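Lab notebook, bench 4. Still working through the backlog of constructs that have no structural model yet. Next entry is a single chain of 159 residues. Request: give me the structure tokens for it.
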Amino acid sequence: MKSQWSNFHQIGRNSFLAASTVYVSSEFNFVNTSLLNRRSFCFAEGDRSSFVVLKSEADFNSALSKARDGSLPSVFYFTAAWCGPCRLISPVILELSNKYPDVTTYKVDIDEGGLSNAIGKLNVSAVPTLQFFKGGVKKAEIVGVDVVRLKSVMEQLYK
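Model written out:
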């Protein structure tokens, strides 16, 4: 009986690394898929958070209008499913969403169909990006994973 590795001797020297990388990559994604199920953005009944996943440009425009007219303190969380740092910061964002229920957190997946114009409207150039609105004005922006700064900004703006 041949093992799954017995065919690797037939792969050329230059393509071995690519073949093994694909194998590791698919294994990594399988593992992360199970982690994502546990760390989803769904909330149990009784959670106090105000977390909204934006799925269309119309939803995004409506949320941005509320943030800019000052009626709603908001955080826009720009992310992507393939982004490792986004996965790292997601649990912290969920925790803060529960801690500050009067602040609406909008999740914007940059790869979601119809949301590509949203990225341009707020000049998002990398993920994760968090933009904080209060009183109709963008008060702060964090690009990348900086948990200490994220907690500090939330504390300063929304306490």
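Notes after review: The radius of gyration is 20 Å. The helical segments are 13-38, 57-68, 84-99, 116-121, 147-158. Flag for follow-up if needed.
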